[in-house]
Write a structure and sequence with these properties.
alpha/beta, Aspartate Aminotransferase, domain 1, Aspartate Aminotransferase, domain 2, 45% helix, binds pyridoxal-5'-phosphate
Amino acid sequence: MSFFDGIPVAPPIEVFHKNALYLNETAPVKVNLTIGAYRTEEGQPWVLPVVHETEVEIANDTTLNHEYLPVLGHEGFRKAATELVLGENSPAIKEGRSFGVQCLSGTGALRAGAEFLASVCNMKTAYVSNPTWGNHKLVFKKAGFTAVNDYTFWDYDNKRVHIEKLLADLEAAPEKSVIILHGCAHNPTGMDPTQDQWKSICEVIKRKNLFTFFDIAYQGFASGNPDADAWAIRYFVDQGMEMVVSQSFAKNFGLYNERVGNLTVVVNNPAVIAGFQSQMSLVIRANWSNPPAHGARIVHKVLTTPARREQWNQAIQSMSSRIKEMRAALLNKLTELQTPGTWGHITQQIGMFSYTGLTAAQVDHLIAEHKVFLLSDGRINICGLNTKNVDYVAKAIDETVRAVKSNI
Ligand SMILES: Cc1ncc(COP(=O)(O)O)c(C=O)c1O
């Protein structure tokens, strides 16, 4: 007899499961396009030079210690992160209507924000894009949301944002529903609404009294320019919207395992901030109590030291340029091979991922026959490509789509 008898085995988390399958694969040629982490041309993880230099400086700084940080986090980091996403000249900052809360990476910011909305504001209906990042629904359900619904995002036939259905789904959402929007570089589709489409989305959310929850996990990574990538969020702020924004520094600083994130909060009236922060302190106290300092110190120093910030800008530009080059290389090779189907979306999409349109059966074939590992919805991490393997991957896709017909 055990207290734990009868607990069913949960399904594996696909992205980690597929990554493990890749690592255990013994074939001499294999390609990993699964996990959402940057890889160099050599297929290796990258510690940004500016991050390494800053870490060394922190390690040598004998004035620092390992005392607890405040519950809401490292002051300088919270401010720098908020300024990064809203822009230093944001009206919300100038009018004292915004603040940051340090969280455990993007996931922790989503979780703290969701739990706050559910438990303090009694907002328990959320809408996530269909498709979306594999963890959104789980986070919101575990945080106390009783309904986590979909809004249409993707037009599978035409491989574009299905703006008409998206807007219709938002129109139909009950008021006070929480709408989760990807700030840039939508995961998994790699396709963002245009500026005009964002304006329409904002108009519906405002008119229907819905609540905006932005998730920005790839700021700077999408276009190479952090300001450009925050356009939609800043537009919503300019329209006077209240919102929370989960920010991750996993991808744009390469700090995946340090769990550095921020929840930026924008309100209409500074008078509500004291209540908000005190209740948020309780949410965090009951979760992780105090956040870790190492990553927050790095991000703070880099963002607030002009020379370091410039180095960081160069690093994100070099990452996003390499991704663009790999998109072009994959498309060129597929075009050269005259691979059946249309593939222009590979270079139209931005950020780390491409939503290839490959079916689950084609994905199985790619893994079984060619040892090219990707997610079953056809999402590939473009960073897994490099000049040495891109032709191999294109040929594998070409053989697969000829052998396994798509029924779309
Ligand atoms: C859309 C989206 N949101 C949030 C996250 C959170 O990532 P992390 O918790 O590692 O910062 C990710 C990571 O892949 C993501 O793709």
